[in-house]
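Deviation from plan, reported transparently: 2-acetamido-2-deoxy-beta-D-glucopyranose complex.
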Amino acid sequence: MSSCILWFLFLQVIHHSFSISFARGESEIDKLSLLAFKAQISDPPEKLSSWNESLPFCQWSGVTCGRRHQRVIELDLHSSQLVGSLSPHIGNLSFLRLLRLENNSFTNTIPQEIDRLVRLQTLILGNNSFTGEIPANISHCSNLLSLNLEGNNLTGNLPAGLGSLSKLQVFSFRKNNLGGKIPPSFENLSSIIEIDGTLNNLQGGIPSSIGKLKTLSFFSLGSNNLSGTIPLSLYNISSLLHLSLAHNQFHGTLPPNMGLTLPNLQYLGIHDNRLSGLIPATLINATKFTGIYLSYNEFTGKVPTLASMPNLRVLSMQAIGLGNGEDDDLSFLYTLSNSSKLEALAINENNFGGVLPDIISNFSTKLKQMTFGSNQIRGSIPDGIGNLVSLDTLGLEANHLTGSIPSSIGKLQNLADFFLNENKLSGSIPSSLGNITSLMQINFDQNNLQGSIPPSLGNCQNLLVLALSQNNLSGPIPKEVLSISSLSMYLVLSENQLTGSLPFEVGKLVTLGYMDISKNRLSGEIPASLGSCESLEHLYLDGNFLQGPISESLRSLRALQDLNLSHNNLSGQIPKFLGDLKLQSLDLSFNDLEGEVPMNGVFENTSAISISGNKNLCGGILQLNLPKCRSKSTKPKSSTKLALIVAIPCGFIGLIFITSFLYFCCLKKSLRKTKNDLAREIPFQGVAYKDLRQATNGFSSENLIGAGSFGSVYKGLLASDGVIVAVKVFNLLREGASKSFMRECAALTNIRHRNLVKVLCAYAGVDVQGSA
Ligand SMILES: *[C@@H]1O[C@H](CO)[C@@H](O)[C@H](O)[C@H]1NC(C)=O
Ligand SMILES: *[C@@H]1O[C@H](CO)[C@@H](O)[C@H](O)[C@H]1NC(C)=O
Ligand SMILES: *[C@@H]1O[C@H](CO)[C@@H](O)[C@H](O)[C@H]1NC(C)=O
Ligand SMILES: *[C@@H]1O[C@H](CO)[C@@H](O)[C@H](O)[C@H]1NC(C)=O
Ligand SMILES: *[C@@H]1O[C@H](CO)[C@@H](O)[C@H](O)[C@H]1NC(C)=O
Ligand SMILES: *[C@@H]1O[C@H](CO)[C@@H](O)[C@H](O)[C@H]1NC(C)=O
Ligand SMILES: *[C@@H]1O[C@H](CO)[C@@H](O)[C@H](O)[C@H]1NC(C)=O
Ligand SMILES: *[C@@H]1O[C@H](CO)[C@@H](O)[C@H](O)[C@H]1NC(C)=O
Ligand SMILES: *[C@@H]1O[C@H](CO)[C@@H](O)[C@H](O)[C@H]1NC(C)=O
Ligand SMILES: *[C@@H]1O[C@H](CO)[C@@H](O)[C@H](O)[C@H]1NC(C)=O
Ligand SMILES: *[C@@H]1O[C@H](CO)[C@@H](O)[C@H](O)[C@H]1NC(C)=O
Ligand SMILES: *[C@@H]1O[C@H](CO)[C@@H](O)[C@H](O)[C@H]1NC(C)=O
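Because the crystal trials were delayed, the predicted structure below was used instead.
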């Protein structure tokens, strides 16, 4: 018996010491694994300096061990500036429950060995540069609760077995290059709360079995290439708070009872698909909405009443074919006056008729963006619009509005983008506009505005664009307006009745790229100070009564591409320096110019110049068929006629050349199309985020031209088009980047001016700082 007890004790002792040595051996493995992990990190930062022999590894920074055994249970080294690859030895840390390496610079693949971490609950590898496929056997980590792979460069398909992670609650793989279909096994993610696969390249449809995920609350697969119809079962998941399927290719209709089956929905982002049919009237029953994004679909009919959504911040319904041009089309607006948190209301590019209702004056004072452009809205702008003190974007362009611009507009102290172009507005431009120092763009083109341009506009020292063309404006150009040094993109005052001379102050526009003051009644000489506008690429002063010589100071306009001085009374010789500039087109026709035509630069190309309708020109290249220049003495009258007769047809042929060049090349730069009135349009192509990033030098601070509560504006040069763009980054509509997000954005800012480069915009959610 006693020997038995002794044996037992002996065995105990043996066993104990064996356990200890076994445990020691195991923890030795952990230490070696950690060192192997460190070895794969090039140039280890400060954070890993404590990983040395002077400390037990359980005290190394970022390492947490369990109490009982000295085994690593947590490794948290997020945001530690680690650069390198993830060692396969990580798979030997067999007690690991948490691994956080997000926001570093890990490259190469995620090692397959990760599948040995069967105790792992939290795996966060987001915001690195991992490449390759998601390890197929990651589904062996059956205890995973949270799996975050977002913001990497992962490719291939989602592993077929992923669905067996029955405890998984959060799964984010947004912002990668994952393709293929959604694995059918997803139906078995029975604990899932959040799925975020935005910004990938998933194909095919959403399996109908998705309806089995009864705990799903956040479901975002926006900006993929998914197609088919949205399965009805998805609308049965009453736990859904956030549903985003934007920027895909879904078609079909929304179920009429949608607002009843998804009573908790707060965010509905289904914009940029091919959805059709009516907007379900039951949306009104989902009273928790904060954002409804329906833009860019093919819906029809009227907008149902949307009252009782006290938390609604964004209602985006642009370009979806709503409205019938009828009087009551806008009646849904009455139901929005109780949404006291409304910040953005975009209904532009639809078919809404009726009168702009006074009720808009009662909208939330938090409203920042109101875009009603390109509809058939009548009536006048209510005086109460001045109540909407948070507005930063007000777009009412391309409607049938009449009456005058209320002077209460001056109360909109946050207004940055203001578009009223292409209406029938009359009266004068309110001088109170000068109270809005946040203004960046004013476009009132193509109205019937009268009176003079208020000098108070000179207070708007953040203005980038001022467009007042095709109105009835008279009086002189105020020198204050030409002293807006921020005016860097457009100054367009063409086709008005402006008189007086071009003020000397024009020389202060040193950053301006585009100036069009054509077709007015300006007189006097071209001021020498114009030579200071060194950024000018396009200068149009044609169709005025300008006289005197072509100012020698224009020599310093080195960026100039298009110059039109035609249809004035300019006299003297054609200055030789015009041939030294990098002009692509030059129109000097119908002036009183005389003497020798230069032969270099733009003058070498008959299709780029127009010089007809001048008195006494001679010389130039042979194809111009001008008479030879005689000695400096006065020329005989007879040759004048010849020059005229020859020059006119040549100019005409030149025009045809320019036109066909435009037609065939789809010229993307703005080119002055000489005196025929071809639209001076700069076509707007969808622009990819990466191009914008490149254009703005990575949204660098040097390119920042304006910032405010409304967001930031960057100036950039699009490499592909050579077009200068302003990129506006919104704070508000953070729906995430996408291949086509520019479309929505462009319409939201919605600049319809023909001369304007579109002001592009991006979302803050796109990660402007570019850590992805
Ligand atoms: C080792 O780690 C300790 C503790 O962080 C630190 O004080 C020491 O400088 C480190 N030694 C080396 C050689 O990095
Ligand atoms: C990412 O890490 C950098 C330092 O490496 C830090 O400045 C930044 O705030 C981190 N970002 C996030 C989102 O944690
Ligand atoms: C640790 O992992 C590496 C790579 O997976 C493997 O080669 C090695 O044998 C493992 N070491 C131990 C002691 O298990
Ligand atoms: C990755 O970066 C984005 C943008 O900075 C941030 O919102 C997100 O939380 C980060 N993800 C992780 C896992 O840190
Ligand atoms: C992703 O990979 C592509 C090419 O494979 C590369 O150009 C890009 O820079 C990578 N992006 C990141 C965030 O590592
Ligand atoms: C995945 O696990 C299976 C066993 O479940 C194994 O046969 C296979 O080799 C593993 N694949 C990889 C790539 O590790
Ligand atoms: C889901 O799990 C069940 C039970 O384990 C299994 O029979 C079924 O095949 C799984 N579904 C898919 C699509 O893998
Ligand atoms: C998107 O899916 C369609 C088929 O639905 C396919 O023709 C197209 O090539 C896909 N586009 C991309 C970018 O994968
Ligand atoms: C939605 O749920 C209801 C009630 O639970 C059920 O009768 C119906 O079949 C479900 N519809 C779909 C498409 O799953
Ligand atoms: C839906 O909302 C409307 C309007 O508020 C209300 O009349 C109706 O009873 C609601 N339906 C349900 C099922 O709650
Ligand atoms: C707005 O709220 C007020 C007070 O709660 C209510 O009397 C009114 O009917 C509501 N208007 C709409 C359009 O829902
Ligand atoms: C706004 O502008 C008007 C007209 O220019 C001026 O009389 C008024 O004082 C200005 N108000 C403020 C608050 O600046």
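The longest helix spans residues 2-39. We consider this an acceptable substitute for the interim report.
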